[in-house]
Design brief:
This is Phage late control D family protein. By secondary structure, this protein is α+β, with helices and mostly antiparallel strands. The chain has four domains: 2-85; 89-167, 3-Layer(bab) Sandwich (Phage tail protein beta-alpha-beta fold); 171-190 and 250-301, Elongation Factor Tu (Ef-tu), domain 3 (Beta Barrel), CATH 2.40.30.150; 195-248. The protein has helices spanning 43-47, 103-113, 138-149, 165-169, 232-247, and strands spanning 3-6, 9-10, 19-25, 32-38, 54-59, 62-63, 67-75, 78-84, 94-102, 117-121, 127-136, 151-156, 159-164, 176-177, 187-190, 195-203, 209-215, 221-226, 251-258, 268-271, 279-289, 294-301. The strands form four sheets. Strands 1, 2, 3, 4, 5, 6, 7, 8, 14, 15, 19, 20, 21 and 22 form a 14-stranded mixed beta sheet that branches. Strands 10-13-12 form a three-stranded mixed beta sheet. Helix 3 (138-149) packs across helix 5. The radius of gyration is 21 Å and the shape is globular. The two termini are 37 Å apart.
Length: 303
């Protein structure tokens, strides 16, 4: 059964749910849920839900945590709520500059500004001489830093969670997935959009050039970012971060399955008995259809 808590009240017995689809991301974007209700009597319109209202969806042992209503629509006898894991304040573009600051202090400042707490796992607390947020939302800004440093940013249940992807990928994969566990329309893909190199460059005042090119094992294109850089070490980290962010999807899989909550975004799974695509995979997205009892797992190979 799909349970809905709205503004702290369990309203499950007062409603009927026509569809409910959840998207759980390992990072790079907010988790989201879309719930549609039969509403021929237009009761939801009378209840007047608003953007920013807080809800939580539970099913079995799974919970979305706190979600914030981001969209409301009504048509043809139905009413739909869209909600995301990010407070709406974190979506507003901002401009600010930090000087002589460590990464965890930036995270702390953004968490405080949006009424969130934070946790970090496996990261290095790099110091920045100058770093700027230019017409970016807080979430987009944190994601930008994380891509550069090889980290992921996830907001879930009132917390900002920053973690090193390599740190997570080294953990043991426990669930084993075989062809018997998935529906027949599963898919494995080898990407043809990989980069052989990525360069980060900054032409500092007075002609000082800071540049670094990271290289991969793949044949392919090359990338370039012009960034404000403070050191060659920073250029090296960021070039490797940008390159990793592109090439980490070299081998991916899409696995439609019966409804399962034991596999979440950020977890590791073992793929077996599929042949050439067997191996250890990092789950970067899970979609859950709670009404039709189906799960859709998206993962990338890490070994």
């Amino acid at each position: 059964m799909t349970q809905l808590i709205y503004e702290g009240k369990d309203i499950t017995k007062d409603i009927s749910i026509k569809s409910c689809v959840l998207h759980d991301y390992a990072g790079g974007g907010a988790d989201d849920v879309r719930i549609t209700f039969p509403d021929s009597d237009k009761l939801w319109g009378k209840w007047n839900p608003e953007r920013g209202d807080i809800l939580e969806v539970k099913t079995g042992n799974y919970s979305t945590g706190l979600m914030y209503v981001d969209g409301v629509s009504q048509c043809a006898g139905t009413f739909t709520l869209n909600a995301i894991s990010t407070p709406l304040s974190a979506k507003k573009p901002k401009n600010r500059i930090w000087r002589n600051i460590k990464f965890t202090q930036i995270i702390s400042d953004i968490a405080d500004a949006n009424g969130l707490t934070y946790e970090v796992y496996g990261i290095t607390d790099y110091a920045y001489t100058v770093i700027s947020q230019m017409n970016q939302s807080d979430l987009d800004f944190l994601n930008m830093i994380c891509i550069r440093e090889g980290y992921s940013c996830k907001i879930s249940d009132g917390k900002i969670i920053i973690f090193s992807e390599e740190y997570m990928e080294r953990k043991t994969a426990k669930p084993i997935i075989t062809p018997n566990d998935v529906f027949q329309n599963y898919e494995f893909t080898k990407s043809d959009n990989l980069f052989s190199s990525f360069t980060v460059r900054y032409a500092a005042p007075f002609g000082n050039l800071i540049t670094y090119t990271a290289r991969s094992i793949y044949a392919g294109g090359s990338g370039l970012e012009i960034e404000y850089l403070n050191s060659i070490a920073e250029a090296e980290r960021w070039a490797n971060g940008y390159l990793r962010n592109i090439n980490k999807y070299a081998v991916t899989t899409y696995l439609p399955m019966k409804f399962i909550t034991d596999i979440s975004a950020g977890s590791l799974i073992n793929i077996k008995e599929f042949g050439t695509f067997d191996g250890k995979y990092y789950v970067y997205k899970v979609s859950l259809d709670t009404v039709n009892n189906k799960s859709y797992v998206y993962a990338r190979q890490v070994d």
